[in-house]
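At this stage, I put together one protein's amino acid sequence and its C-alpha cells, which the following lines show:
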Amino acid sequence: MPSTEVATPHPADPSAPEWGAGRHAAAPVSPAAPARLAPHETLSRLPAAPHLSALDRWTLLLGGAVLLAAAFTLVPALFPQPRVPTVTRVALPAATSPAPATPEAPVYPTTSSVTPLISGRVNLNSASLEQLEALPKVGPALASRIVAGRPYRSLADLDRVKGVGPAALKTLEPLVSF
C-alpha cells in the first residue's frame, strides 16, 4: 500500500479551519507527486511550549546546577590524573661549632638576702643533703645513699651507688666534683 503524507494547516492562519474541524482537516497527497506546501503549512507541528513560571525556571536552573556540580565531582573519579611527588632540593644550613663536651656548671650570684644552695660544681665528698637534693635527678633517698657511700674519687665510684644509672651520671657529670 502506498504511503500518504497528510498536510495540516498552520494554526496561525486565519483562513484555516479550527483544529479538529472535519471539513478541511486533512487532505491526502499523492505519493507520485510531492505536494508543495505553503510557508504557513507544515507536515507536523508540536504545540508551543507552555509559559514557564518563575518558580519552574528556578527549579530548572537549580537542577542544571546540581547536574553540573555532579559532573565536576565525577570527572576526577572517572578520569584520574597521575600524581607525581615533587622533590625539592634545599641546601642544609652550615654546621656550627660543636657544643663543648662537658658544659660548665651554672654559677649563681650571691646576694645579701639569698644564698644559692649550689653554685658551680658541687663536691660530692663535702656537700650537705640539701645541696645534693638540689641536683637534678637526686631526691632525699638518693642523697642519703650518696652521703653513705663517701668518699668518691671518680664517676665510677658514683656509679656504684644504688639508684644512679647511666642517665643520672650523664646529667650529673658537669655538675659534680670529687
